[in-house]
Amino acid sequence: MSLAAIRIGKSGIRFVSQYPPLNRGRDWVIEGWWIRDHKPDSWPETAEERKLAAMRYGLREEDYCPYPREMHVGNYPDLGRINYALKDPYENWSYPGMRRNFNEPVDFFHDVIFADRYTVTGVEYASSYSNIFAFWQKFVRLLQYIGGFGLFLYLTTFMIPTNEVPVKPKQYAYDYEWAFPYRDPKKFPLVHYTFEPED
């Protein structure tokens, strides 16, 4: 923003706080995006509310189906489970990394069924690891992993030598004061006084 853009008005100087892009009466956000626009409204009760909710999410009225009221997600539409693996990789997506187009509504569980997470294609369950072994076999395998790692920690803690200094007897400040320099300090034991009341 140059000085020429600020020097307008009767006084000759316009304050930055009066600059229109900064004085919109709301937070500094990207134009056309506001957090309240993405917050779902209440669950639609009437046909008119269903029609408005369908228009809001860019769906036809006959295609709009909200989630059950017990999920507490408002009027957000149930779009079905369409995950990353089911979408065409050769289509010209607006966001190729997510295989999503601009303003395309996403499923409520989109963060769960993303490319590197859970998938719902149905093909992977026939040969998945979870169907090869029974529950007790998976539990034994888990115990093997945990027990092996615990044994490794035990062995590395107690068998590998460390550079710890052995514990020495407690040293007092005036051990060698009377014996210095040529006498034996054991002949001068220290007297320690306590402040306990006499009986």
Give me a quick take on this structure.
This protein is mostly helical. The chain has helices at 3-6, 35-38, 47-56, 129-132, 135-158.
Question: What would your notes on this structure say?
Answer:
The chain is mainly α and 199 residues long. Among the domains are: 3-78, no CATH class; 132-156. The chain is built from five helices and no strands. It has helices at residues 3-6, 35-38, 47-56, 129-132, 135-158. The longest helix has 24 residues, at 135-158. The radius of gyration is 37 Å and the shape is elongated. The protein starts with a helix and ends in a 41-residue tail after the last helix. The model is unreliable at 1-19 (pLDDT under 50).
Relative helix content: 10-25%
Mean pLDDT: 74
Task: Output the radius of gyration.
Answer: 37 Å
Give me the number of helical elements: 5
* Strand percentage: under 5%
Count the E strands.
0
Report how far apart the termini are.
87 Å
**Which sequence of SSEs, written as H and E, runs from N to C?**
HHHHH
Q: What structural class results from the helix and strand content?
A: mainly alpha
